[in-house]
# Entry
Amino acid sequence: MEIHQIGGIGYDSNMYLIIDEVIALIDAGTGQNFKIVRRNLEQLGLKPSDIKLLINTHCHFDHTGGDLDFLKAGCEIAIYESEADLLRKGDRHVTMAHLFGAHPEPLQVTQELREGSKIELGKSVLEVIHTPGHTQGSICLYEPRLGALFSGDTVFYGDVGRTDLPTGSYRDLAQSLKRLAELKPKSLYPGHGPSADDGADELILSAIELI
Ligand SMILES: [Zn+2]
# Structure
């Protein structure tokens, strides 16, 4: 399995391309920089239609605004079950799209993820961990063989996700961080900012102390 960061420009979330037998993408940015994202894909010899599955870590527009471009390319869209209808309805408020002046088009969500769902990509598998706190339906994705944790906006390098937005909960975030600490992950791939190849377990323990 190869991991490439192909986004994260401007207000976009980070976008992690996972290359295995199946090619998957974790988060899609706002969509405002899609041309640059497509160029980054081209540099890897790929195009949007090569991506089979787009997994959103949560509903926020800076992670899901780009979904439509990938949907049009034939990609399937996955998100935690409790946030699927927000994308299907083109919600502006819980997704924070209104902050970007955006009116999201209703999206066809084909996979509703649950706690413990396993996304098989070939040799690698992404395990879905429900980590409410930043939003009620936030998830992290864990690849156990590599010890790689894709943490969305739950935990960053040296910080944690905010809990003051719709459906956010400080108490839930604290619980979620404890769960992540039990995994003792090696590497951390957060939704914004830098990633860490090593010491992800220590970063999560520091995050718990921080809050
Ligand atoms: Zn967010």
Notes: Residues 58, 60, 134, 153 surround zinc ion (CB under 6 Å).
